[in-house]
């Protein structure tokens, strides 16, 4: 990506070359533990509970004040969200406190946004922020529900079996033990039953979504559950729809700050608060997406320098930016 405007300040995505950072890290003896193989111990089904509880505590701890700022830059990174057709349906996976949802809803007054998170605390924070917004009809186009897409999958009211077709069934032959949620757990989520994807006799779902945003979400999912998570995203996306991806990149400053004892897998780390983070290289994202059938449109590192105002220290941030399309059926 080239030089872009970010709100009122200049924003660059190529402040430094990722390959130069890679060489520096891989030649630093003090950072070699990040590169070592890791044998993961199976923790059973407890991960499901621990992940959800950890994020509940995280959002409860940061319920006062504005811990996250609005991610307005995403509309410049993903202009498709601004230029989309009227009444497009967006699913934000891992919505957190609404920092991504709000600028999307403000940008276009007809966009309908569905938002899910595994944390009930996060959903409460998101609802509060959306309801407090003064924009016209913002809260009426925001529909949230609790869901861990990497374990239970997405509810059938997003896309029924007729809309998903045979793809979901074929994909899950390779992922035994994955459960599919067949009901909505959010009673007040309004469902548009007029979608042409459902038959007249079976108006049971919204017919899939036009966009899925995965913004700093997949990195919080255990590595072994990522293929299932991406399969789920593919299954409810309309043919021709886009998955918009942004997450932590390999050798990001955050990764290099983790201590050896915080490693829980190869490129996987556990924070002291129980939340986890994985750091992606381009090939790891490419392989996940292509394995389920996505077509790659964009995939690159964003390498941004920022300065800590208090210490004056330069921080090198690395994120992976990607756009992937579900092929249009013949």
From TrEMBL:
Signal peptide region: none
Species, as recorded: Olea europaea subsp. europaea
Keyword presence, Transferase: yes
GO molecular function terms attached to this record: RNA methyltransferase activity; S-adenosylmethionine-dependent methyltransferase activity
This enzyme's EC code(s): 2.1.1.-
Superkingdom to which the source organism belongs: Eukaryota
Main function: S-adenosyl-L-methionine-dependent methyltransferase.
Stated name of the protein: tRNA N(3)-methylcytidine methyltransferase
């Amino acid at each position: 990506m080239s030089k872009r405007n970010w709100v009122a300040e200049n924003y660059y995505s190529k402040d430094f070359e990722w390959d130069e950072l890679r060489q520096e890290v891989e030649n630093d003896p003090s950072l070699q533990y990040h590169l070592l193989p890791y044998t993961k111990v199976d923790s059973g089904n407890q991960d499901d509970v621990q992940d959800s509880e950890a994020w509940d505590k995280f959002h409860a701890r940061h319920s006062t004040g504005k811990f996250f700022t609005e991610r307005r830059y995403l509309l410049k990174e993903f202009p498709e969200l601004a230029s989309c057709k009227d009444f497009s349906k967006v699913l934000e996976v891992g919505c957190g406190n609404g920092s991504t949802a709000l600028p999307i809803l403000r940008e276009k007054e007809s966009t309908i946004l569905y938002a899910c998170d595994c944390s009930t605390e996060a959903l409460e924070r998101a609802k509060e922020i959306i309801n407090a917004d003064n924009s016209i009809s913002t809260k009426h186009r925001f529909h949230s529900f609790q869901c861990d897409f990497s374990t239970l999958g997405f509810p059938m009211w997003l896309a029924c079996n007729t809309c998903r077709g045979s793809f979901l069934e074929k994909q899950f032959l390779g992922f035994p033990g994955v459960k599919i949620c067949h009901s909505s757990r959010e009673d007040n989520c309004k469902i548009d039953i007029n979608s042409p994807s459902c038959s007249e006799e079976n108006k049971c779902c919204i017919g899939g979504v036009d966009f899925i945003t995965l913004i700093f979400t997949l990195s919080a999912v255990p590595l072994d559950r990522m293929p299932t998570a991406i399969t789920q995203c593919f299954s409810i996306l309309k043919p021709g729809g886009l998955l918009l991806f942004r997450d932590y990149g390999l050798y990001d400053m955050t990764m290099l700050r983790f201590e050896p004892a915080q490693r829980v897998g190869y490129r996987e780390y556990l924070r002291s608060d129980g939340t986890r983070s994985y750091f992606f290289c381009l090939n790891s994202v490419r392989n996940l997406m292509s394995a389920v059938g996505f077509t790659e449109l964009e995939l690159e590192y964003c390498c941004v320098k920022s300065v800590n105002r208090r210490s004056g220290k330069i921080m090198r941030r690395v994120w992976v930016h990607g756009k992937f399309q579900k092929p249009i059926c013949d």
